[in-house]
Amino acid sequence: MDITGIAGVIIWTEPARHAEMARFYRDVVGLTPRSDREGFINFEWGEMRLTVARHSALAGPSADPKRIMVNLQTHRIQEAYRRLSAAGVEFSRPPEREPWGGWIATFSDPDGNVVQLMQTS
Q: For residues 18-45, b (16+ Cβ closer than 10 Å) or e, as one string?
């Protein structure tokens, strides 16, 4: 097969909201930027990238925040949940074990996009 995986995900936001979105993922969620410049911030794990970038055709929060969901891998979901909660992140779902054996906790970013912490073991 010529498609070997997902190279990355881009979360688009309006120009006026980019700084808040970048701060949320960098300072609140605690991700380390690979690249951080005006209107663009990129985080990288191996070959996988998560980017938050501004897009002039967007305005306001996500109109359909459940259309796409970003799952952030963690090996210590309870610790991540406590740290993010203490930083003011409101979870719509606290950490819960899934029928497949892993753990999920759900929150939203400042644009209303659904984000999950996922612990697979």
A: beebbebbbeebebeeeeeeeeebbbee
User: 8-18: per-residue pLDDT in tens?
Assistant: 999 999 999 99
Tens digits of residue pLDDT in 46-93: 889 999 999 999 888 888 888 889 999 999 999 999 999 999 999 999
Would you list the DSSP string of the chain? Answer: ----S--EEEEEE-GGGHHHHHHIIIIIS-PPEEEEETTEEEEEETTEEEEEEE-TT--SS-SSTTSSEEEEE-S-HHHHHHHHHHTTPPEEEEEEE-TTS-EEEEEE-TT--EEEEEE--
- pTM of the entire predicted model: 0.89
Q: Minimal CA–CA distance to 52: which of 8, 88, 83, 114?
A: 8
